[in-house]
Amino acid sequence: MSFLQSIRRTCSKRTSWVWARSYSAANVTPPSSEGSKNPAASSTTSQSAPLSISSCAPDTVLKGVNYLKGQAPVVARPDEEYPPWLWNVLKPRVYEDDGPGGRKERMERRKANRQAIKDRNFMQTQ
């Protein structure tokens, strides 16, 4: 691992809690009541509220989203009203391995090239 990668890794760890905190509900799956060995536990999960995918509750005023004068404030909607593709926007793309010279190999090479350029530019500023 290069010196620059270790610096970036420590910096990314410092700010990663923000993303993990705001999108943590997207990775949580509700517990299933089927096959539960404890009947008391299954009754409590069925009575609890469903897990929310978004980071804010419905009818929350979203500050900073409305930038036009004289417009009504923007309010968050329930999760069901948003399109399903919205919850997958932040997931990284996964390319299938289609052999040498394929799309996956080209994307990895481009990513490595961009990183090398960033490292070179960073070292020139030091």
TrEMBL record:
Q: Where does it mainly reside?
A: mitochondrion
Question: What cellular-component terms does GO give this entry?
Answer: mitochondrial large ribosomal subunit
What keywords were assigned to this record? Mitochondrion, Ribonucleoprotein, Ribosomal protein, Transit peptide
Report whether Ligase shows up as a keyword of the record. no
**A single GO molecular function term of this UniProt record:** structural constituent of ribosome
Q: Which InterPro entries does the entry mention?
A: Ribosomal_mL54 (IPR013870)
Note whether Mitochondrion occurs among the keywords. yes
Q: Which domain of life is it from?
A: Eukaryota
Question: Region Disordered: start and end of each range?
Answer: 25-55, 94-126
Which protein, by its recorded name, is this? Large ribosomal subunit protein mL54
**Organism encoding this protein:** Psilocybe cubensis (Psychedelic mushroom)
Taxonomy, top ranks, is: Eukaryota, Fungi, Dikarya, Basidiomycota, Agaricomycotina
